[in-house]
Design brief:
The complex is a heteropentamer of chains A (about 100), B (about 500), C (about 650), D (about 170) and E (about 475). With about 100 residues, chain A is mainly α. Helices cover about 75% and strands about 0% of the residues of chain A. Chain A has one domain: Orthogonal Bundle (Helix Hairpins), CATH 1.10.287.3510. Chain A is built from three helices and no strands. Chain A is elongated. The N and C termini of chain A lie far apart (about 55 Å). Chain B has about 500 residues and is mostly helical. Chain E is mainly α and about 475 residues long. Chain E has one domain. Chain E is built from 20 helices and two strands. In chain E, helix 3 runs antiparallel to helix 4 and helix 13 packs antiparallel against helix 14. Classes of the chains: A mainly alpha (about 100), B mainly alpha (about 500), C mainly alpha (about 650), D mainly alpha (about 170), E mainly alpha (about 475). Chains C and D meet through helix 26 of C and helix 4 of D.
Chain lengths: ~100, ~500, ~650, ~170, ~475
């Protein structure tokens, strides 16, 4: 029932999503939106894992579980990141990434 | 207990001893005792060496000591000396001893000064007694690095700049060297057998010629930088000018000899074919060194610069002679190393003493010093005459051996570079006499100088020990020459065994 | 063969004296130092006379010729398989003759100096240097091999340097000593190269081997190597350059006049009698090689000698400093000797020039030392060197006057004074060889007589000069040496040199060729007469003559501007256009390159600092682009 | 057929909302778009028959993380605030880089011949998943789940340390 | 699970327990008494370190997800020693008023990252590897933002967490492709089938950039300096030695085992990256005035040297890398320890503040000099040996020019290390920092570093042990 759609379609979607995420990371000025771009990236990776698992190696659930772990890690990462962002907000009164450049050169 | 180990242990103990001292008086006493013992050891070594040879021991290296250090890499702490190293060790002993006395009044941070100085000396000793490339390299770098501190803290003038320049250029040299050493190591044994850093072992194998061609320039230039090879000599004038007296003495006196010694012991000995092939390039560079340094010295006005450029010239002659690759020239090279070491140490000692009195090193500001400080004046003249190759002093013996040796090559190229190099004896005379004339002779320019006092006892010890050594070699060169010749024979045999038709 | 080992003492005693005085002299009373020095040399002199006696008469078998004997030899430095430097003592006619000359003159000078240098603060230093010089010079003449000679050659040079610069507080003395050393050093470079070439080609340094007519040196003659001359010729020419430097031959002569800055006894000893003839001795020492192996080189010797002699004679006519006149006279006379060697052949009568040269060397040593010491006595009395500051001194300095006159007559070649004999032999030798050189020498003979008497009249006759202090005769310690030397000047001509000092050691018959001698004497007399007319009384004639030959006079007075040329070469070319640019190049190109590398590193460190902008998104951008570039390179390009 | 439609639908949604997430000027909207992306992804998982994953995606990702993000947006921004957009240069360069990256990556990936699964699709039920999760044999995931607990604990503590307000230091 | 498995996993288990114990004690302590945690934790960790050295058997657990060998144990022990020194050095800082309430958090976060590193090194599959990596990173971000009243600290935190998230995203994408290409996340399976196809190279590059981020290789290093500068000094030293060391360990293991088949490709990559890293790192370090930032760039340059060992690709290479990391830990901690001691006591972190320090605090200066010389690779201190062996291993693979570039870079690095030496010993200062005396713990930490710096080089035994455990690229 999945044969009608080739694996590559999923890969195209995930790859685009991955790079859209990267684009977001590189251009969004708001730290939280940058974090959201990261979530996009992780999500694209998850699609990869799941699609590979489903299409190529359905006997084992390696991609499947990998995806689960990635989600958990993403959550942890998001938690810490958001805590730091809030801290930034307190310190800088802004969460514009452009302002966070006190240290350079 | 192998006597060679003592050459490391005694300085280390001395350093420990100095650490326990409190002030200048104690630390200089400890240093003087330590280095005095070391000097005696050096002479004992010479004696033992000659006795062994006299007893018919024909091994290339004597007093071998070998302890495995890093078994998996076959790195050994391997010691051994032949006549050449023995001679160099004796030189080091004298110069270091004189250096300690030349810094008898080192008021500022004396402990640190003597410790650094002796670490430097340790490096030099270690280098000369090592026959393992790894330990050799280790000691080499160990000897170079205290220079920074010594010049940086106790120097004069633009000391930070000079110290940094000196250190970095020498370290860049050791960068080249390291590549060379590693290359040698990985071709030190036929496939299958364990690699080795031991020079004597490596000399038994034949490093592939392609590798030799690649590695020889690295190794030679690497050592050459320390030996003030043109155009990598510019650390020398600045470094020497800024360094405190004893450091200039040690540096020009013994440290620069590491370059020549290494160039010959490692670069040429282990890679004779490439050496034969590429010698012409370096012969051109070294003959430039010789003349160029001498010409540069003519117009300098700072005593130390004059001597530094003169060192460029003289050390250029060392490398020049080494590259001639025959027994006589190489013998001359080694005598020249020793001779230059003693002379230049003497010069720097005197310059330091004069500077300590007049507070200037510019010859234009001085004059007629012979009248007020006759002892130093006379010794300065002696040093000058020795430097310009007057018979009776070591410089003559060295230069003549070199020129006769270099002249054994029949082709035009070698002849021309020999004559070019020989012409330095005239230029040397010019700058030496210029200095002597302005500095010591003529009327006294500054009435303030009339109050100067002549050399103190420790200064006399420092200078007289060097003068004695210079004249000893100059008047009775045969023992030194024979000692070196004996040890050179196998080396030259190896070098000349490969006949390469080079460019010339 | 007799044992000559003891001759080792002849140089070693002065060495010992040198060390003794040099190390402890400052604690001695001046007179003690002087006595020690003189005694030491006295012993050496006695040993030399004994040696001469033993060699020439005592142990000599009549008619057998004089062999060259190695009295002593040790190996000093092993160089190559073939070449080893030895130190030793070589006894042969010329070395024995030189021993006598050196020790005699040196002893005279020592004694004389006790008076002359009285009150000088560096008294002991002076004597120690004199001893050092004597040691070096004796070592030089006794050398068994060319390298030993070179060693002592250098030592002689340095003793000369030390003695010229004896008054080291006087800038002119310092400059003169420097000049002397450097010019001779430059020539020594030629000597060294010559030695290198010669020794490489022959495989030996040893004089006996080298001069052996069947030895390797002469065998290696022939075959053009470079510019049509053989290697042997070239090496001998180079060696001669060394000799020319030491002997102040043109164009290396410039140091000699300046060297007169030294104390006058030094000028007498070093720059008249002994050291400056070392070049002659060198050529004489290697004479068989020159004569048999490289006649072309010998030709060079002859012409350099001939040219120098007339060149110096012309200059000498115009100088006003009495010591400089003598210096140029020395140069001229040495030119004679060189020429004589140059025109000589080897063996028997052919070797007349060789004998004459040595003969002249011997007589010249006597009369020139006498002249200098006399001049010293004059200077001592009037405290000036300038001829203008003297005059009419014959009454004040009677002994000096007489001895000086004897010397002048001698040098003018008037029989039966010694120089007549030696000069005559030279003229004969030149006559048989090269007529042009012969003609030159005639002219020089006349000039010599002229300028010597110009000097003589200028000092002892001429105008009545007012002196601050009335000049008075020197003490006995100074005049006795004058008398002894005057004796030598008068009678040395009767020594049968042709029986003693010959090119091949075998005596030959020689008699005076009156056809050549008489004109030469006449020319000498002519010179004297002219000088008498011009200078005996104060008159305007000299100025007139000078005015007539204005340009020649000016040129000669300025020594043909050779000093200026040298100054130009050293100051302008070497200093300004070689050394300074090199030093500049070193600082501003080579060093700047090294600093530039450091600078570039620093600069690039600043140039790339924008990379670390502190902007997180830029970091991300670099990160991503880095990854993409890696992909591009390693997936698609490689 | 239905699957295909669902795939294209979800695929289109994912891409559209992804783009919107990174381009919209309103921050809160971006979060909502992100939510849509995540939900669409869950839809994809459904269509792949990985229902458990889809559920986790919805609950943890969409439900947990996005809510967290939205709260933090509310904490740090005003609703009316428009996001400042990056300068044009930055956008262009980033777009170029990402486009290049996407092209290269896609070209590479699509050229790769994945070995398709030839075996029978095993029926995936929740028991297997559960068994795998606690198994400590090959293809068992007990260890990761233990470790992730440490991670979560650490993250929690970390977040607290960073975010908690400090008491005023005693004078 | 049986007892021997517990013994096998003792590093991870013990440390988890310690972390929990710390947490529990902390919860039961009054605010006033929180500083008691410090000695307790220190002693616990000391015991942990010692226990780590007990012999253990190589074994594989969890179906291959976790495996341990003598080499891995050694790596963990090396990290432990480093952490112990850091803990000692952070005591003074922790006792400060502003940190009093967060002491236990510091320890717990630190320990959890260390646990992450253990798992990362011990991992037998990409899942555990990734998990370990994240566990080793995320808490550090929190630690970096530890001083939350300081803007710099917050900035460091956000820069670290966001860029690490980006990098781990890219790394994950790589892993997903690896999974897609090979069908497994287990190392042992992957290494057998990994092939040199474009996509697998691409996957490797993605993966590698993620690792490069951790080790801070140019151009993936840009976060390093800012984070190092902003983070509390002890966190910085942790980041620069432990974090980096662990990443280097796992990188070389993966390179030699999993990606062995594409060694020809990655050697080129490594070559390029190594040159870039050494050069750029050095160039940046040249200009730095802030000591932390300075050490950050120096540690970037040092990372470039590590690649030389990987390039060597043989036993010598791995030995050299591990040995170098060990030496580097001691040297860098020596330097950081001094910076930390000074910074904690006086708050000064600029190089200018070090002017004339020798006149007031000679011992500290000597240690600093030794540490810097060690970093620069000057004999007779250990750094010389470390660098020499790295160069030797690269040379053994024939990379002579790379060695040359590397040694030249070492020379450049010597320049800026000497700048610090110059500041301390040579520069004159009217008012150098006053004499200060650190507390016992800091001093112990410094002494251990100094000992390590001195002894490691001469004591060839250590090198030999590492050598006996190492392996080369598996063919």
């Amino acid at each position: 029932m999945i044969q009608n759609i080739p694996l590559s379609y999923y890969l195209v979607i995930s790859t685009f999503m991955f790079f859209i995420g990267i684009y977001g990371f590189l251009t969004r000025r708001n730290l939280i939106t940058m974090l959201m771009s990261i979530e996009l990236i992780l999500n694209s990776v998850n699609i990869n894992f799941v699609a590979f698992n489903r299409y190529l190696y359905p006997q084992q659930l390696q991609g499947h579980f990998f995806m689960l772990i990635v989600i958990a890690v993403a959550a942890a990462e998001a938690a810490v990141a958001i805590a730091i962002i809030i801290n930034i907000y307190r310190n800088f009164k802004s969460i514009d990434v452009e302002n966070v450049d006190e240290m350079k050169y | 207990m192998n006597i060679l180990n003592l050459f490391i242990i005694v300085p280390v103990l001395t350093v420990c001893g100095i650490m326990l001292t409190k002030d200048l008086k104690q630390s200089r006493l400890v240093s003087a005792i330590g280095m005095g013992v070391q000097l005696i050891l050096a002479f004992v070594l010479v004696y033992l060496y000659l006795a062994e040879r006299g007893a018919g021991n024909t091994a290339t290296m004597l007093f071998m000591y070998d302890a495995v250090w890093f078994p998996s890499l076959n790195i050994h702490y391997a010691l051994g000396v032949d006549g050449i190293s023995v001679a160099m060790i004796a030189l080091t002993g004298i110069v270091v001893f004189a250096g300690i006395f030349a810094s008898w009044k080192m008021e500022f941070l004396p402990r640190e000064f003597f410790i650094s100085l002796i670490i430097l000396a340790t490096g030099v000793y270690g280098f000369f007694i090592s026959i393992d490339l790894f330990t050799m390299f280790l000691f080499y770098e160990l000897a170079v690095i205290p220079m920074y501190i010594l010049i940086g803290i106790w120097g004069t003038g633009p000391k930070e700049y000079s110290a940094m320049k000196l250190t970095l250029m020498l370290m860049a040299g050791s960068a080249l060297l390291l590549v060379g050493i590693l290359g040698i190591y990985f071709f030190s044994a036929p496939a299958g057998s364990p690699l080795t850093f031991n020079i004597m072992e490596i000399s038994k194998v034949h490093i592939p010629i392609e590798m030799q061609r690649f590695l020889f320039p690295f190794t030679f230039v690497g050592f050459g930088i320390l030996g003030a090879l043109f155009p990598f000599h510019t650390w020398s004038p600045d470094g020497h000018a800024s360094a405190p007296t004893a450091v200039s003495m040690l540096h020009a006196g013994v440290l620069m000899k590491l370059g020549g010694y290494g160039a010959f012991r490692v670069a040429i000995f282990l890679m004779p074919q490439a050496a034969q092939e590429q010698a012409w390039i370096f012969l051109i560079l070294t003959s430039i060194s010789v003349v160029y340094g001498a010409f540069s010295a003519i117009v300098q006005t700072d005593l130390k610069y004059i001597n530094a450029y003169s060192s460029v010239s003289h050390c250029g002659l060392v490398l020049f002679a080494i590259l001639m690759m025959n027994q006589t020239a190489m013998n001359g090279a080694i005598i020249q190393m020793i001779s230059h070491g003693l002379m230049t140490a003497l010069f720097f000692a005197l310059i330091g003493m004069i500077y300590g009195r007049t507070h200037t090193r510019l010859i234009n500001e001085m004059g007629g010093l012979m009248k007020v400080i006759p002892f130093l004046g006379v010794v300065y003249v002696i040093a000058g005459l020795a430097s310009l190759g007057l018979p009776g002093f070591s410089g003559f013996v060295a230069e003549m051996t070199i020129f006769v040796g270099a002249f054994q090559h029949v082709d035009v190229f070698h002849r021309v570079v020999t004559i070019v190099a020989a012409s330095s004896i005239v230029i040397t005379a010019v700058y030496i006499l210029r200095v002597v004339g302005i500095l010591l002779f003529g009327p006294i320019k500054n009435p303030h100088f009339l109050e100067l006092t002549d050399a103190k006892w420790y200064e006399r010890i420092s200078t007289i020990s060097l003068v004695l050594a210079i004249t000893a070699i100059g008047t009775a060169p045969w023992w030194l020459s024979n000692m070196i010749n004996y040890s050179l024979a196998p080396i030259v045999e190896r070098i000349s065994a490969v006949q390469v038709t080079g460019l010339f | 063969m007799a044992d000559y080992t003891y001759t080792l003492l002849i140089p070693l005693i002065p060495l010992f004296v040198f060390l003794l005085l040099g190390l402890t002299g400052h604690k001695m009373k001046p007179l003690v130092a002087g006595l020690i020095g003189s005694t030491g040399l006295g012993i050496s002199a006695i040993l030399s006379y004994a040696t001469a006696f033993k060699y020439f008469i005592g142990s000599h078998v009549a008619g057998a010729g004089y062999a060259s004997i190695k009295g002593f030899e040790v190996s000093w430095l092993h160089l190559t398989d073939k070449l080893t430097i030895h130190l030793g003592v070589l006894i042969d006619p010329i070395s024995v003759m030189m021993l006598v000359v050196i020790t005699t003159v040196s002893l005279m000078v020592h004694i004389y100096s006790i008076g002359y240098m009285k009150g000088d603060p560096g008294f002991y230093r002076f004597f120690s240097f004199l001893s050092l010089f004597s040691f070096s010079m004796l070592g030089l003449v006794l050398a068994t091999n060319i390298f030993q000679m070179y060693i002592f050659w250098e030592l002689v040079g340095v003793s000369s340097f030390l003695l010229i610069g004896y008054y080291y507080e006087k800038p002119s003395a310092v400059a003169a000593s420097k000049k002397a050393f450097i010019v001779t050093r430059f020539a020594d470079l030629g000597f060294l190269i010559g030695i290198l070439m010669l020794s490489f080609n022959t495989g030996t340094f040893d004089f006996q081997t080298l001069t052996d007519p069947h030895g390797p040196a002469i065998a290696s003659a022939g075959g053009a190597a470079f510019m049509g001359l053989s290697v042997l010729t070239w090496s001998l020419i180079f060696i001669f350059i060394g000799g020319a430097g030491k002997s102040a031959m043109f164009p290396f002569h410039i140091w000699l006049p300046d060297a007169m800055e030294g104390p006058t006894p030094v000028s007498a000893l070093i720059h008249a009698a002994t050291m400056v003839v070392a070049g002659v001795y060198l050529v004489a020492r290697l004479f068989p090689v020159y004569a048999l192996g490289a006649p072309d080189a010998l030709m060079v010797v002859a012409w350099v000698g001939g040219f120098s002699s007339i060149f110096a004679a012309v200059i000498a006519c115009t100088q006003t400093d009495i010591k400089r006149v003598l210096a140029f006279s020395t140069m001229s006379q040495i030119g004679y000797m060189m020429l004589s060697l140059g025109v000589s052949g080897y063996g028997g009568e052919e070797g007349l020039g060789f004998m004459a040269s040595n003969f002249h060397l011997f007589t010249h040593a006597m009369f020139k030392a006498l002249l200098f010491l006399g001049a010293g006595a004059v200077i001592h009395a009037v405290h000036t060197n300038e001829i203008g500051g003297m005059g009419n001194l014959r009454k004040h300095l009677p002994i000096t006057h007489i001895t000086f006159l004897i010397a002048c007559v001698t040098i003018a070649g008037i029989p039966p004074f010694s120089a007549f004999f030696s000069k005559d032999e030279i003229l004969v030798a030149a006559f048989h060889s090269n007529k042009l050189l012969f003609a030159i020498e005639y002219i020089v003979a006349g000039l010599t007589a002229f300028y010597m008497f110009r000097l003589y009249y200028g000092i002892f006759w001429g105008k009545n000069t007012q002196y601050h202090h009335t000049p008075h005769e020197s003490p006995l310690v100074m005049t006795i040496p004058l008398m002894i030397l005057a004796f030598g000047s008068v009678f040395a001509g009767f020594i049968p040199f042709h029986a003693l000092v010959t090119s091949d050691g075998l005596p030959f018959e020689s008699k005076i060729d009156w056809l050549i001698a008489i004109p030469s004497v006449l020319i000498g007399v002519l010179g004297i007469v002219v000088a008498t007319v011009m200078y005996k009384k104060e008159n305007p004639l000299p100025d007139k003559v000078a005015g007539t030959f204005k340009h020649l006079y000016k040129w000669a007075y300025h020594k043909f501007y050779w000093d200026e040329i040298y100054l130009f070469v050293t100051r302008k070319i070497i200093y300004r256009y070689i050394s300074e640019p090199i030093a500049w190049f070193d600082r501003h190109v080579i060093d700047a390159t090294m600093n530039g590398i450091a600078g570039i590193t620093q600069y690039s460190a600043y140039a790339i600092k924008g990379l670390q902008s502190g902007k997180l998104q830029q970091y991300g951008f670099v990160f991503v682009s880095g990854t993409i570039i890696l992909v591009l390179i390693f997936v698609y390009l490689v | 057929m239905l699957n295909e439609v669902m795939f294209y639908l979800f695929g289109a949604m994912i891409l559209t909302f992804s783009v919107l997430t990174v381009t919209t000027r309103r921050i809160l909207r971006a979060a909502v778009y992100l939510l849509f992306v995540l939900i669409s992804t869950a839809g994809l998982y459904f269509s792949l028959n990985y229902n458990f994953l889809a559920a986790v995606q919805l609950t943890v990702y969409a439900g947990g993380i996005v809510v967290l993000i939205i709260f933090s947006i509310l904490l740090t921004s005003h609703l009316s605030e428009r996001a400042v957009m990056a300068p044009l240069k930055q956008s262009i360069f980033s777009a170029l880089a990402t486009l290049a990256g996407a092209t290269l990556t896609l070209m590479t990936i699509l050229r790769f011949s994945f070995v398709p699964n030839t075996g029978v699709d095993p029926q995936l039920n929740i028991t297997d998943i559960g068994n795998s999760m606690v198994s400590y044999n090959r293809d068992g995931y007990a260890l990761p789940f233990e470790v992730i607990s440490v991670l979560l604990l650490a993250a929690m503590i970390g977040a607290i340390v960073v975010a908690k307000k400090e008491r005023k230091l005693k004078e | 699970m049986n007892f021997s498995d517990i013994l096998t996993m003792r590093h991870e288990l013990m440390l988890t327990i310690i972390a929990l114990v710390v947490l529990i004690i902390d919860l039961n302590l009054h605010n006033r008494d929180k500083h008691f945690i410090i000695p307790i934790t220190l002693s616990l960790f000391f015991i942990h370190t010692v226990v780590g050295f007990l012999p253990s058997q190589p074994s594989t657990l969890f179906g291959g997800m976790y495996h341990t060998t003598a080499l891995i144990v050694l790596m963990k022990n090396i990290l432990n020693v480093g952490v112990l020194i850091i803990l000692l050095q952070s005591v003074t800082w922790l006792k400060k008023e502003e940190n009093r309430e967060k002491i236990s958090e510091y320890f717990i976060l630190l320990f959890s990252t260390l646990i992450g590193m253990y798992f990362m090194i011990s991992s037998g599959d990409f899942l555990m590897f990734y998990l370990g990596l994240e566990l080793a990173t995320i808490p550090i971000a929190a630690l970096a933002a530890y001083n939350h009243h300081q803007t710099k600290s917050a900035e460091a935190g956000i820069k670290l967490i966001l860029s690490s998230a980006l990098s781990s995203g890219i790394l994950l994408f790589g892993i997903s492709l690896i999974y897609g290409a090979t069908g497994s996340i287990y190392f042992d399976s992957i290494s057998q089938v990994y092939a040199n196809t474009p996509m697998q190279v691409l996957a490797f590059i993605f993966f590698f950039t993620g690792m490069a981020f951790k080790i801070s290789l140019v151009p993936f290093h840009l976060w390093t300096a800012d984070v190092y500068e902003g983070a509390p000094i002890n966190v910085t030293s942790y980041l620069s030695v432990i974090s980096k060391g662990a990443a280097a360990f796992i990188l070389i293991i993966l390179m030699f085992t999993v990606f062995n088949t594409i060694a020809p490709v990655y050697n080129h990559i490594l070559y390029m990256i190594a040159v870039l890293t050494m050069t750029i790192g050095n160039l940046f370090a040249l200009r730095q005035k802030n000591m932390k930032r300075f050490l950050a760039f120096s540690s970037i340059a040092q990372a470039g040297f590590i690649l030389l060992g990987i390039l060597g690709g043989n036993i010598m290479g791995m030995t050299a890398v591990i040995y170098f990391v060990l030496v580097y830990i001691f040297s860098n901690l020596g330097a950081f320890g001094v910076v930390s001691a000074i910074s904690t006591v006086t708050g000064k972190e600029s190089m200018d503040d070090y002017d004339g320090l020798y006149s007031t605090n000679p011992k500290v200066c000597l240690l600093m000099m030794l540490a810097l010389f060690s970093l620069a690779g000057i004999p007779p201190v250990a750094g010389f040996f470390g660098k020499f062996f790295l160069f030797a291993s690269a040379a053994s693979a024939g990379y002579y020019w790379l060695v040359f570039i590397a040694v030249l870079n070492a020379t450049i690095s010597l320049y800026y290390y000497l700048l610090v030496v110059k500041a301390m010993f040579i520069n004159k200062n009217e008012k150098p920092l006053a004499y200060f005396k650190s507390d016992l713990a800091t001093r112990t930490g410094l002494v251990i570093s100094a000992l390590g710096i001195f002894v490691l080089g001469f004591w060839s035994q250590i090198y030999e042990i590492i050598n006996s455990l190492s392996f080369g690229v598996i063919h």
